[in-house]
Every structure is written in C-alpha cells, then in structure tokens.
Amino acid sequence: MAMDTEKIRNFCIVAHIDHGKSTLADRLLERTGTLTTREMKTQVLDSMDLERERGITIKSHAIRMNYRSRYGQEYVLNLIDTPGHVDFTYEVSRSLFACEGAILVVDASQGIEAQTLSNLYMALDADLRIIPVINKIDLPAADVERTEKDIAGLLGIEDGEILKISAKTGAGVDKALEAIVDRIPPPKGDPGKPTKALIFDSAFDSYRGVIAYVRVFDGTIKKGDWIRFFAHKRQYEVDELGFLKLKMFPQETLSAGDVGYVIANIRNVADTQVGDTITVRSNPALNPLPGFRKVKPMVFAGLYPGASEDFEKLRTAVEKLKLNDSALAYEPETSNALGFGFRVGFLGLLHMEIVQERLQREYELSIINTVPNVEYRVTMSDGRQIPVENPSLMPEPGKIISIEEPYVDATVITPSGYIGNLMKLCQDRRGIYKTTNYIDPDRVSLRYEIPLAEIIFDFYDKLKSISRGYASLDYEFIDYKESRLAKLDIVLNGEPVDALSYIIHRDKAYQWGKSLCEKLQQLIPRQMFEVVIQAAIGNKIIARETVKPLRKNVTAKCYGGDITRKRKLLERQKEGKRRMRQVGQVEIPQDAFFAIMQVNK
Question: Under a CB-based contact definition with an 8 Å cutoff, are residues 227 and 280 in contact?
C-alpha cells in the first residue's frame, strides 16, 4: 500500500570531511530502531574498509527509517547519504536534488570549512530546507559559541534554530529527529501523473545485474512495468523493486515521494547514469527531470602492472571496478618504457587514489602509475580542435595554433595567520586572485581561479603543510582557457621515454626539467656505458645530466714501456663503449616513475 506522502521526509546530511556525518547517520539508525544491535557497527553506511579507515564516504547510500514522533505519529524518513569529497560534486548534487531537506553538520572544534560552504550553497541551490547542527560539542576543543555565531551569520537565522549535538555520545540526536519531521516539508509528487524517477546511484550485482537507486517524483513504478531511460532510450522490464534498509525489502510498487531500488535485468552499469530519469511505458513522461549531465573524467593517468605478466590480471581488475563505478573510463595503451597498460580517466585525485588502492588491496596488484594529467584542448593549424589527455599524443609544435587547459574556481578557508603564505602558494600555481572574505575575525575565505593541472599534483599537501593542517580546500570546474603550454620530453641516450613526458607551462619547464634530470641521475644505475639524460621541448634541449659509466682499468697490466700501448688500449675500450651504447638498453627502475611524483614544481 502506498504511504501517505505527508508522512514521508526525504533528507540528506552534508558536511566537510571528518565533521561526523557518518557517525550522526549511525545514531539516527540506532534511535529509530532500523538496525538491531547485532547489525550495528561504526560508520554502518560506509561499506568499504577504505571508507572506514580514511573517515570519508566514497559511495552514496540510501536507507529507510520508521520513526514515531513525540506526538505518536508514524513517519518514514529516507536518508540519502552523500559522498563527502570534492571529486564527487555531481553525485552530491543529484543526491541533494532527490531530497527536500538537508542536515548541515559543522564540527564545533573546527568550524565552517571549504566543503561546508560548497555543500551548503549546493543545498540552497536545490531549494532544500536546511537544519543547521553543531556536532562534537563534547570535545575539550569545542568552541560552540563561535561556531553558532558563524552559522547564524552565514544562514541569516536566529541562534535558537541551531541544534547542538554529539553524534558520538548521542546527546541531542532526538531533537535532530524531531527537527527533521517538523522543519522538512513532505514530498510534493502526484502518484497519478506521468512517472518520473531520478537515479541518484547504482550498484552492480553479478547475479542480478545493475541495481538502480531511485527517488520517485511523480507517478508509480510497479513490478512487471516496462521502464525507459531518457539518456539512451533503452527499455527494460522491472524484475524487482522495493525499499532499502541496508538489505533490500521487495515491494509491489514505488510511488511518488518514495526512495528505493529497481532491478530490471540491466547488464551494463553505464546504462544507469547518475542523474538520468526513468519513466514507464504505460504512463510515460514527455520530459526528463532537470540537471542531468554525463560524468566526465577530469584527471588521467597511465596504470601499468609492476610485472608485465600481470597485464591480464590488471585488465580483469579494472573491468570489475568499472562494473560498480560508471565514472571510471579506461582504454588500453602501450608505452616503450612500461609495456602494456591502461590510460584511465578519474573524477579527481582522490578518485584516482581510491582506485589504485583498491587494485592493490582487493586484487593484490603492484601498480606503476604515470604522472596524472588533465585533458587539454589543442587547436590545430587546419582549424580542428582535438582533446589530448596523454602527453604522448600531443601533436608536433609546428602544427599547433593554441592549447587550452581547464580552470577551476578554488575556495581556501584558513586561519588569518596563514593568508600571506597561502596567497603566495596560489600565485606560484598560476592562480588568478578573485576575492577575500572574513568569515569571522580569525578565519578567511580566499577565492582564486587556478589551472586544474596545478591542483592535481601536490597542491593539497602543500596547503596543509603551510597551514599546519588548518586550511581547507574546495574547487569546481569553470571553463577552458588558453595557456602557454608545451610538452616536456625526457630523453635517455637520444631515445624519448614516453611514460615520463609531461605537459607543462613554459615558464616552469626549465625548473621542472632540471629537477627531473637531477632526480633521474640519482636513480638510474650506472651502466657499462655513459647514459645521457636530457629534458627537451621539441628539438630544444633545456637541461642535461650524465650518469658516468662503470670503468674497467684496462691499463693495469701495462707496468712500463711506451705510452702508445696505453693509448691503444684506451682507444679500444672507448670504441667498445661507443658500440655498447648504441645497442645497450637503459633499464629505468620503478623508483624513477614514483620520483617524478615528488619533483617539486
């Protein structure tokens, strides 16, 4: 039987990383009796070990709770948990769109941070009712008054509307549940209208195919209905649908306002794209829900197996990861230095780190990755514009008119004592200054436009070390802009090493090339012949280092006689070394590929 929509509340929890979002979700599940004590564990919605260890949410989850209010009325609360990192901004926006309200969690000891603002603005854009919550009030370092003042100023509300809780101990969580029922409006959908359901996430089951997690806005979906996806127009018959309470609870129908899952024998996870709209053949909608866009990878890197015989194992592992992660894009590629591997596209640097770690943990693979790159747009002399995400595909300099690179709008929130050093960091990374806003007398929000390529490398680590861990970063893609870029090649004994190529701004090319040559000189073992390491842009050499050869003392047996005997032996040795250099292969150790990641820009 369809639930009365007046008794449904769809909400999410938004927060900066490590402000207690998953812990609050645990307490809500406990207080509503959704899970038994035996089923309960910390960060219950974070299903991966990686999520637990790092204290971040990587995958969206949804869970249905039944709650009896203080007036004795029964409510259904649908919590749509959202990923908590900037890489997954689009997924967060779709999860927010599926809700009517959001709990904004702010850590009392750390205050408002960059992602707090970013997620708040997204929630306000989605027209959600915000319930501000100050968490971790039990900590000795908690500054509840200042945090309360900051939130009140940010939202333009009275202090009394802000809830104070400790998700760890459970203090104040009952008030949060009452606020969800009282403040968040019920869904507005009409079960009689043409069916529209939003996909906010999906998962792959090897026995049943893709499970699509949906929020129904209008109409109903029944078991046996034929559903159609707006993005690719394919149709499938619904095999099963129902609600989620960690496990799946099958139902006969999902109606307007409901959040649940749909299984329809879909074999390809790419068919259930986040943000797409589902309708039914018997009562079709004419237009999809707004806001859908295809998820595009922003960061690209080559992934190669540590041992060449593991290539097939790597292929299988990447294919399996792709089944549960539609944002992952990959294609095979070959490198002269590293052999067979894959060019893989990621949403961002955290996404890349997670994929690499999962490959190493779950599939026991040793991975070598090339330097991460962004996708550049190259305008050719014949007027064509081509995308280049791999430096080895960069055309000859004479054929290029211009190169464009992606820029992001970066927000850094920092204690005011670190402003000078952080502004210098942003300017060193080619940042264009936008604004400075004081959140309170001690904390500042800086906004810069920065090339994405400058952020994906080690920007975050530098930001944290300069600010002693206090500064936070958030960014979103703006557009492509023309830049003075060039492809930097590393050449060993006249042979370019494609895996060490890099696209870099011309002003930084010399310093980068010099640092890299010096690093490689230390790492490449001495051979029987001289190894020349050069950094080049096109045909122009900009830096050079030499690895001296191992040398046998061929004149040791000459203990006297004419000098010409020694010269003759030395000339013969020199000739042998020259021939050896022509046929000799320079083995590049794995450390060299990791070292490039540490070269200071």
Answer: yes
